[in-house]
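Q: What changes when zinc ion is included in the input?
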Amino acid sequence: MAKRCRVCNGAAQIKRPKTGDIMCKECFYYAFEEEIHHTVLAGKLFTAGETVAIGASGGKDSTVLAHVMTVLNERHNYGLNLILLSVDEGITGYRDDSLETVKINQQEYGLPLKIVSYQELYGWTMDSIVQQIGLKNNCTYCGVFRRQALDRGAMLLKVDKIVTGHNADDIAETVIMNVLRGDIARLRRCTAVTTGTDGALPRCKPFKYTYEKDIVMYAFHKNLTYFSTECIYSPNAYRGFARAYIKDLERIQPSAIIDIIHSGESLCVKKDVRMPVQSTCSRCGYISSNELCKACVMLEGLNKGRPRLGIGKTHKERRLFNEELARQAAEAAATNCDETTTTTTTTTTFTNGKVCCGGKGACGSMGGSGQAPEMCGSNLQSKSESDCVGSVSPSGGGGVAECANSLKKVRIGVPTAKPNLLEF
Ligand code: SF4
Ligand code: ZN
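A: The predicted holo structure follows.
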């Protein structure tokens, strides 16, 4: 006897991975979309009138996110102004192709598209970074830079929020990774449906409870245009092991993913556990718990041919770098830097050879605006957690800023020589 859809009693065509329900396609689509709507409502993710950037990589998660956000915005009158925002890491044969998919999505959904690139922001592509550092730790660089690149792109567009396609599988993996690393600060926040409310820009995850298998099924049956090739630099071994571990668990306990997320949500940190104190990077103004944000340290390492600077916590390179920073700060304090009393025309050469017009960054002088420490936009640099979930999800940072371009606590920079960045 033909199986019937458990919702409409029509002919069933699908067995839903998340619930095992037998359904027709139309009922599956509706149930899938409405569950995401429920997450949006329960998490109070949006307010009517907001401009929301959808992190778009061309992969299945972000493509389905763009599609579903468009559908729900219309169906439930969210009143959102949606924009696609992509990051070009500069990975030949991978990201260039996937961005072509995003451009097709742009046409399909009639949404504006903005692309920011590592080359423009940092002066490095992932191809050139891998050439220097090899295939170990490349995803750490990429994740840190991507996070900041997304924030910078979003600030250029003056959006209110960013939404990313991180799904339930990704979040469960992140919980396990943070447990294994003992990273309590990230463990505490990684299950939040909205993060970054006290930082650069709020980031929301409407797919927090959505299973990857459901997303694949939705994209496949809806015939959505997405890019499914793996990143050519994707060893990302640590996440890979976490993923394999959860897949093993799922075989014994099918609810493993959601159980791990619920465990992460319920964890509470003892009062006496020391947490990083949030501050801003003295070089670029991005949110950071250290003197310099992770991206600025990484860029310093790349620009000086000392790539290990940005990796690990206690490496000798980092210690030497911190001593160098302290020495520079002491020297600047001793001379009391006459530039602080001048106006915007002071020109300073950075350690990487680029020239700053006077932000209180590497040069130690006061920005042209004469306000708080900030760095001019001649050399955009960046911060983050490596939250790329392989080759398909947008993820993601914080960095160097243009003089006097501030948003909340963070100043995000825009190279003034590239006004076309604002065109999309
Ligand atoms: Fe970057 Fe992701 Fe590729 Fe790693 S797998 S290099 S984080 S795009
Ligand atoms: Zn910085």
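Observations recorded in class: The first strand starts at residue 14 and ends at 15.
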